[in-house]
């Protein structure tokens, strides 16, 4: 994971959660595939991503 944010107590990255949701998976499908997760943990990953994007950091594209 090399410093990537993960769901507490797992090795599942926030990035993986976002990729699965972007691919059209539902939270229910993610929970079925990863039974160690909770709905609250998936929602916390979304809040983390939102807050990270709100930070005053500019990431150059390309």
TrEMBL record:
Signal peptide (from-to): none
A Pfam family the protein falls into: DUF433
Highest taxon of the lineage: Bacteria
Native species: Chloracidobacterium thermophilum (strain B)
InterPro entries, per the entry: DUF433, Homeodomain-like_sf, WH-like_DNA-bd_sf
Listed name of the protein: Uncharacterized conserved protein
Gene3D superfamilies listed in its UniProt record: Winged helix-like DNA-binding domain superfamily/Winged helix DNA-binding domain
């Amino acid at each position: 994971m090399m410093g990537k944010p993960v769901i507490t107590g797992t090795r599942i990255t926030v990035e993986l959660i976002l990729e699965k949701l972007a691919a059209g998976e539902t939270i229910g499908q993610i929970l079925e595939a990863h039974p160690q997760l909770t709905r609250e943990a998936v929602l916390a990953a979304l809040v983390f991503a939102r807050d990270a994007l709100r930070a005053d950091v500019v990431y150059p594209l390309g």
